Amino acid sequence: AIHSLAVAKKCAEIAAQRGKDKGVQQQMVLLGWLHDIGYAYDDNANHGKIAVGILQDSRFLHAGPGYRYLNEILMHGYPENKPRRSQDIFGNKLDAPYHSEALDILNTADITTMPNGTDCTAAMRLLDVKNRYGKNSEQYANIFALCKELKLDTK
What is the sign of the dihedral through the CA atoms of 61, 65, 66 and 67? Predict the structure, then answer.
């Protein structure tokens, strides 16, 4: 929960730095807060998919037109070359890997926030993931590739 709160705040900060209005900043807070709720039911690889399922089934979505950032929640943490980025939340094949500014904001905030909620560099986060999952893990490979995509310094 501490990590998600810190990511939520950082998402709003990044959106503000990019000149987004208050409404978008508020949506980014919500995106950051919700991005990891799937961890309540899964330890790692499926947490984004589980989060989307929770949000699709919840009353949260039935109060209005639906939450517009479900694809970002599903695909955060995955670089463009991964199959997860080639299908939307409904399983529809996409012509190109999914990309949005909101996904970039979320991934940047997530990568630069440690699990305990403290700010960090991309290099520090890579070391954290390497220590927890191993240098040959999918998690490390994904974060490393995302750092390159987002042009985050890994040194």
Answer: negative
Indicate yes or no: pTM above 0.85: yes
Mind listing the pLDDT tens digit for each residue in 7-47?
999 999 999 999 999 999 999 999 999 898 888 887 677 78
Cα torsion through 63, 46, 73, 29, rounded to 10: 80
Q: Please give the backbone phi and psi of residue 140, each rounded to the nearest 5 degrees, phi first.
A: -65, -45
The mean pLDDT value for 131-147 works out to: 95
DSSP per-residue string spanning 100-124: -HHHHHHHHHHHTB-TTS-B--HHH
Contact of 6 with 117, CB cutoff 8 Å? yes
